[in-house]
Design brief:
It is a single chain. The protein has 261 residues and is an alpha+beta fold. The chain folds into 2 domains: 72 residues, no CATH class; 188 residues, Glutaredoxin, CATH 3.40.30. The protein is built from 11 helices and 6 strands. The chain has a 6-stranded mixed sheet with strand order 1-6-5-3-4-2. Helix 1 runs antiparallel to helix 3 and helix 6 packs across helix 9. 40% of the residues are buried. The N terminus is likely disordered.
Length: 261
């Protein structure tokens, strides 16, 4: 229970930090307006507020002690080291720099990152062969559909459709019921849906996903999205941790720093 509370406090602090750094202009837009660069729409703001309510309910069920609050998100200067053997790679496997994203498919901040910053990262770093991008499952306990979504994406990966379904699920982070996920799977070209359904129903990746969460927690990571960026050393990624859906310029700076080493 203490570990669950600790994660909740950490995520609560993470969400407040994000909200405090939103521009007032982005919140003042009409619901139909597209967000300004680095801003959010009213719909996304509502999702963030719902996120805060969910965490508040979790804390209300068992108040965390002050000690638990010490597990707040890691500072950007923290170091990390992980083995990515067996995980899907987006980009060239021999790219000189590696970025791991610790993500939760139900996380509105992960969606904000992929709707904005990720597009520039893909164009300037992944597609040019300089960066290999790794997805690391970290479903948070207060997101009821996140673990199931992670299971589904791994099942799509058995048919070499990992990244296609992953993209669809992150883009629809607020609609991830079982029926929703099946609908997205049907949109993936050449995916055998019957085979996919059998895989999801088997829960075959449950233990692997739990191990993934434990691996992230072992690095002091407790919120999403969080990133580990380092020089590629085979299956080992040894680098610095960056917390939050930062602007592209911050990622570009970190990646350039790794390239220069």
């Amino acid at each position: 229970m203490l570990q669950s509370q600790s994660r909740a406090v950490s995520c609560f602090a993470f969400l407040l930090f994000f909200l405090l750094h939103l521009s007032a202009a982005s919140l003042a837009q009409s619901p139909a307006a597209a967000p300004a660069q680095g801003g959010i729409t009213h719909e996304q703001a509502d999702q963030i507020l719902q996120e805060l309510r969910d965490i508040h309910r979790l804390l209300a069920n068992g108040a965390a002690t002050p000690r638990a609050a010490e597990s707040a998100p890691a500072p950007a200067t923290q170091k990390g080291r992980l083995n990515i053997n067996g995980l899907p790679v987006l980009g060239r496997a021999d790219a000189p720099v590696t970025m791991i994203e610790f993500s939760d498919y139900q996380c509105p901040f992960c969606r904000a990152f992929h709707n904005g910053t990720f597009n520039d990262l893909k164009k300037n770093w992944i597609d040019t062969g300089k960066l290999r991008f790794i997805s690391w499952d970290m479903p948070l306990e207060f997101h009821s559909n996140a673990a199931h979504a992670a299971q589904a994406v791994r099942c799509a990966g058995e048919q070499n459709k990992f990244w296609e379904l992953r993209s669809l699920l992150i883009a629809n982070a607020d609609k991830l019921s079982n029926d929703d996920i099946l609908g997205y799977a049907q949109q993936v070209p050449q995916l055998d849906v019957d085979r996919f359904k059998a895989c999801v129903q088997s829960d075959k990746f449950t233990d692997a996903i739990k191990k993934s969460v434990a691996g992230a927690n072992g690095q002091g990571i407790s919120g999403t999205p969080t990133f580990l960026i380092g020089k590629s050393q085979g299956d080992i990624v040894d680098g610095s941790i960056l917390v939050g859906a930062k602007p592209y310029a911050e990622f570009d700076s970190k990646l350039s720093e790794q390239m220069s080493k």
